[in-house]
Amino acid sequence: RPLPLSAICPIALSETLRDADLLVSRAAAGEFGFTSAETLRLRGTLVRYLARTMRLTTVYATDDATHVLVEGKRALYRVHLGSGSVLLEESRRHVDLGGVAAAAMGELLTEGMDEGTARLLAVVATLARDEQIADSAFLKQLG
């Protein structure tokens, strides 16, 4: 049941409001001060360039997309350009990549690229070549 604010521990309330503010701030503005919409467009452009450069012909991103479709040999994936979360396209089940893309991310991370964008690009490149993934936890999620 609802409580008046005065009945809530001031420290717990302060910490909860701080966390909520942090969450809203991260959702409203992308990396390096870009808005969320600008971040999505920028990341979509980077994904298209990555796909072209690496000759990943099974990566699909439109100019106004919030997601990228990646057609691997094992599955079709939907990757969110903001959060980097991955869904199996057919079942819409979330896929936890754990450290699968971590090695590729290290190669992409530069001074001019934020960690979220580097991770997203590494995830897309890794999923486009999913037949090379030997991680048992990842394979188990595919069924």
Short overview:
By secondary structure, the chain is of the alpha+beta class. It is built from 5 helices and 5 strands. The termini are far apart.
Molecular structure report:
- The protein contains five helices and five strands; from the N terminus they run ααβββββααα.
- It is α+β, with helices and mostly antiparallel strands and 143 residues long.
- It has a five-stranded antiparallel β-sheet, with helices on one face.
- Helix 2 crosses helix 4 and helix 3 packs across helix 4.
- The termini are far apart.
- The mean pLDDT is 82.
Please name the defining characteristics of this protein.
143 residues, alpha+beta, 5 strands, 45% helix
DSSP helix count? 5
The helix/strand order is: HHEEEEEHHH
Helix content: 40-55%
Model regions low in confidence, pLDDT < 50 over at least 5 residues = none
The shape, in one word, is globular
What is the topological layout?
Blueprint: H1 10-28, H2 36-53, E1 59-60, E2 67-71, E3 76-80, E4 86-88, E5 94-95, H3 102-108, H4 115-128, H5 136-142
Helix pairs in contact: 2-4, 3-4
